[in-house]
């Protein structure tokens, strides 16, 4: 578990996951709250944060598992 967490929080994976989260999170926010944003209604901040957090977690988890799998094959 310690090795997994070290890989998840490595700079390379964190940067990559952040890029994915920005793109996917923005798309999700447009889909989920676009009407509210464009009409000037209240934005659901919890949903907005989760729309960025979930893709970040998925991307970093996937990248870390992939990296550890590659390291095991060597």
Q: What are the main properties of this structure?
A:
NrtS-like, mainly alpha, 74 residues, single chain, 88% helix, Nitrate/nitrite transporter NrtS
Task: Summarize the structure in words.
- The chain has 74 residues and is mostly helical.
- The chain is built from 3 helices and no strands.
- The longest helix is centred in the middle third of the chain and has 29 residues, at 11-39.
- The protein starts with a helix and ends with a helix.
- The mean pLDDT is 93.
Number of strands: 0
N/C terminus separation = 19 Å
Outline: elongated
> Fraction of residues in helices?
over 70%
User: Which structural category do the helix and sheet elements fall into?
Assistant: mainly alpha
Count up the helices.
3
Mean pLDDT, all residues: 93
Order of helices and strands: HHH
User: What is the rounded Rg?
Assistant: 16 Å
What fraction of the residues are assigned to beta strands by DSSP? under 5%
Q: Unreliable segments (pLDDT under 50, ≥5 consecutive)?
A: none
The major sheet is characterized as: none
Summarize the structure.
With 74 residues, this protein is an all-alpha fold. The protein contains 3 helices and no strands.
Give the SSE map.
Layout: H1 2-8, H2 11-39, H3 45-73
Helix pairs in contact: 1-3, 2-3
């Amino acid at each position: 578990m310690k090795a997994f967490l070290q890989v998840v929080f490595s700079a390379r994976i964190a940067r990559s996951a952040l890029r994915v989260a920005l793109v996917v999170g923005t798309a999700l926010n447009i889909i989920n709250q676009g009407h509210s944003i464009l009409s000037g209604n209240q934005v659901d901040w919890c949903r907005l944060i989760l729309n960025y957090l979930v893709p970040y977690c998925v991307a970093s988890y996937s990248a870390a598992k992939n990296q550890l799998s590659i390291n095991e094959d060597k």
